[in-house]
Write a structure and sequence with these properties.
The chain has 390 residues and is α+β, with helices and mostly antiparallel strands. The protein contains 12 helices and 24 strands. The protein has a 4-stranded antiparallel beta sheet, with helices on one face.
Length: 390
Amino acid sequence: MKRCYPKHWVECKFGDVIQIKNGFAFKSKDFKKTNGIPIVKQTQLAGEKVDLSKCVYVDKSFLKSKSDFILKKGDILLGMSGSLGKFCIYDLDEPALQNQRVGKIEPISINYLDKRYCWHFLNTIETLLKEKGKGLGVSNISPSDIEDLPFPLPPLNEQKRITEKLDAILPKVKSAKARLEKIPVILKKFRQSVLAAACSGRLTEDWREGKDLPEPQRGSLSMFSDIISGYAFKSTDFRKQGVPVIKISNVQYGKYEEDTNQEYLPESFLKRYPNFVVRSGDILIALTRPITNDTLKVCLYPEGRQNALLNQRVALLKTKDSVSRSYLLLVLQTYEFKENIKKNLSETLQPNLSPKDLGFIEIEIPPLEEQHEIVRRVEKLFALADSIEE
């Protein structure tokens, strides 16, 4: 499909306005660690600027014998093997030499092409260059592949105006992107702070004022819920339809995750294995590798779902009458509870948690009325965090 460009713009080939010079294959015997002329390899093409912190050097005599490969300040460099799509600007005052498979892009005439405009264009074709790479083990791209790319060429004065605007805008974009990337971490800390306040009583201090409430109860998890470990159903019993089997992959960070390859058991198993039936709202916790990404795998089986059966290495928590399932789920997601889990994991390549050790972990449970208020407040604060994240 032909692209539409503004009036006075010309669509040409990139090779009509630039030339690509490949680097020289310096011999490893000529390299030294210090003192000399730095060699720019593909590994030095990091970010927008060349990184010479771990480069090798050659003798200064190479400046004369390999003068065609001297790099000067402002040269645009391109990786042509391995990690394709790497671009850099050589921004140092002292000269360097260009190694093989590092391409140097130069305008054929500065009367037609602004170097900074060329740089900004290159950043729009990063994905395209990766797609054009050839080779089995290591991807390579030839100068002709790059030179054949369509190139929109505005008048020189307009190129400079575009460049000025992009140079002013893009640092702000990068700064905003860096701040946005911090938001998930900040929100994770916020949620943990909310959970800590909720399960320590700080979140509902104002709500308790003037109320005659019983003291919170402290005891082992098994005091407040029955803990049932899943059953090792035989693989020959699995079906394509019937009662869904809950496996460890379904239990994620506060959420139940659907399995794209969901397996089922016969309907008759609901009566044959009544102790392993999972109902909507039941709490599930992983027993093998229960902590990944420094987060405990625990969730509720979603409301409105048909009854399921619990597979091995997943535990089911059935709360007593004095405990809200939603409140207990908050307790299980706290930093304190996660750290207690860590202390009870088996020290193997596949860390496991026994239902018995899980049941011994101590928690504190406030009166039921306060549990409901805590859940209401936490859900409101979490909803705010979710909206910010979206």
